[in-house]
Amino acid sequence: MNTIPAPTIEYGTLAPLLVVFGAAIIGVLVEAFAPRYLRKAIHVPLTLLSLFGAFALVLVQVLRGQVATTASAMGAVAVDGPSLFIWGVILVLSFVCVLLINDEGHFVASAAAVPGSADEEEAEAEGGGGHTEVYPLVLFAVGGMLLFPAAHDLLMMFVALEVMSLPLYLLCGLARRRRLLSQEASMKYFLLGAFSSAFFLYGTAMIYGYAGTVSLPGINEALAKGSGLDPLLMLGLALLGVGLLFKIGAAPFHAWKPDVYQGAPTPITALMASGTLVAAVGAVLRVFWVGLGNLDWNWRPIIWGVAALTMIVGSILAITQTDIKRMLAYSSIAHAGFLLVGVMATFGTAAQNAVSLKAILFYLAVYSITTVGAFAVVTLVRDPGGEAGHLSRWAGLGKRSPMLAGVFAFFLLAFAGIPLTSGFFGKYAVFAAALNSGTQPGDSMGGWMAGLVVVGVVASAIAAFFYVRVIVLMFFSEPAADGPAIAVPSTGTVAVIAVSLLVTVGVGLYPESLLGVANDAAHSLFIR
Amino acid sequence: MTTHYLVLSGLLFAIGALGVLIRRNAIVVFMCVELMLNACNLAFVTFSRQVGNLEGQVIAFFVMVVAAAEVVVGLAIIVTIFRTRRSASVDDANLLKY
């Protein structure tokens, strides 16, 4: 009998992941065994503590200088510098989003009850609050988000993709108000998400057929040997790209984003717009850079086109929107395009790679925290039937609630990339890295990179137009007599807005602080 | 020898993808997605044979588990929609647009 060698698992390195998944499983047990009136009292501290604990474990690894230099768990998970940075960002974001989720009134009391039925009234009357299943679902989704950009082979990446997405599909359908919209968003997200993950999986199968392995470095090695023009490889690259670009919402795979962002409960939209985007961009970087690095003359022209299209589509369609959440969704699409410009710039020498990686990590961190703040403000502007989504309802908000409108205006300026906000330095870093990569010797896309930056700057200008339009609407038009009520924010919501405002202003004034951290993370590069 | 299986897998995948695009009932659309996942499984197992290692077969097991989890979530969502609207047609879900 042959003995099977036992696998080694680096528990210390993987601890942040294990803490989040462990807490999620405990959360499921709480749902099963704790009486209803106790559940929320157990879930909230459990969720917040586990996210905080995981963040502390990430910090410990970084501060001790113990960043792993080889992949953990038999080559399945790579906890390198960029992974740790992305983990830290996702954990902070999800902590902040859980504070938003805590607020009363976002989630339905009984998702199974038909809207408008007696069942629903009964559930509302007896239960109070919403489904407490939300907390373990969020933890599972966050666990998936952590694993997705750190996955070091395509199988692990597929599993992480599903662990991240499946809870989010459900969470989208749990809004307490406007339940038809919420359920519709959930179904659209689910069907399109499942469709795109099937593409991802078939792409994985094709690449497995070509390379004989699904491990990312293994694929890269096989690419170095082969001619690179194998039909299996081309097909795999295209299908894999569809699956990944869908997740970051790049055009032409962006159609789900406005619908889902509008229909989902706003705290969940905040989590998707920040956490999912960060995780998906991390995964895109890892696949294209670690797995397909030797094929860059094949995928860079495609990403060039997708990036340009995404920036233009996102910026132009945002102008025509009349719903604030839809507008922010298109803005998120445009920002996905700006991030892809950064992905394009990962070419050439290790120094150039570090520069562009630093730019993307920095951009991800500042953009996502501003997004959470903006959606937190959206939760506060309310009509009798729920949040006041329509832009016309926001008219004159600056006169009725100057503080809130001022904060929102500041977030919009940060999205637009006005100097003295964090968004400016994010865009600057990405565009500078892209221009720099065009000057690398041997870059066949040299001139094209400058072209892409021009497209990016034009798209930013178009985007600035609709951000400023909302600001003008808030401050320079008369408020309607029956305008929306401004809800008294809970402590949690105030904390969320304060944190994202502080980061947006702080990084805007002292970008070196965060740039330094991003730089350290980027310099250890991805484990190849 | 393995080419036939690959062609079959490609056909199944194409039928599934086409079904997602042209069928109107959410349950059928969902079944087509499952068909696509099974086409992936067939491709993985075939390549496993062709390449000569077991990775592909192991992956097929993972995919089956993920597909099962997806069925749970998907049916929950579709049933909720059906109870609300008395229809599982994807054309009727048209409140979110533009």
Provide key terms for this protein.
heterodimer, A: 528 residues, mainly alpha, 3-stranded antiparallel beta sheet, 74% helix, globular, B: 98 residues, Helix Hairpins, 3 helices, transport (chain A), quinone (chain A)
Account of the 3D structure:
The complex is a heterodimer of chains A (528) and B (98). The longest helix of chain A has 33 residues. Chain A starts with 10 loop residues before the first helix and ends in a 5-residue tail after the last helix. Chain A has one domain. In chain A, strand 1 and strand 2 form a beta hairpin. The relative contact order of chain A is 0.10. With 528 residues, chain A is an all-alpha fold. The mean pLDDT of chain A is 89. Chain A is 74% helix and 1% strand. Chain B has a single domain, classed as Helix Hairpins (Orthogonal Bundle), CATH 1.10.287. In chain B, 79% of the residues lie in helices and 0% in strands. The longest helix of chain B is centred in the C-terminal third of the chain and has 31 residues. The radius of gyration of chain B is 17 Å and the shape is elongated. The chains are: A mainly alpha (528), B mainly alpha (98). Chain B: It is found in: Cell membrane; Membrane. Chain B: It is an enzyme of class 7 (translocase). Chain B: This is NADH-quinone oxidoreductase subunit K. Chain B: NDH-1 is composed of 14 different subunits. Subunits NuoA, H, J, K, L, M, N constitute the membrane sector of the complex.
Please provide a brief summary of the model:
Chain A is mostly helical. Chain A has 20 helices and three strands.
Order of helices and strands of chain B: HHH
pLDDT averaged over residues of chain A? 89
Helix fraction of chain B, binned, reads over 70%
Largest sheet of chain B: none
Strand fraction of chain A equals under 5%
What separation lies between the terminal Cα atoms of chain B? 50 Å
Basic shape of chain A? globular
Q: In the CATH hierarchy, what is the architecture of chain B at level 2?
A: Orthogonal Bundle
Question: How many β strands of chain B by DSSP?
Answer: 0
Shape of chain B: elongated
Order of helices and strands of chain A: HHHHHHHHHHHHHHEEHHHHEHH
Q: Which structural class should the secondary elements of chain B be placed in?
A: mainly alpha
Q: Which runs of chain B of at least 5 residues are low in confidence (pLDDT < 50)?
A: none
**Estimated share of beta-strand residues of chain B:** under 5%
Radius of gyration of chain B: 17 Å
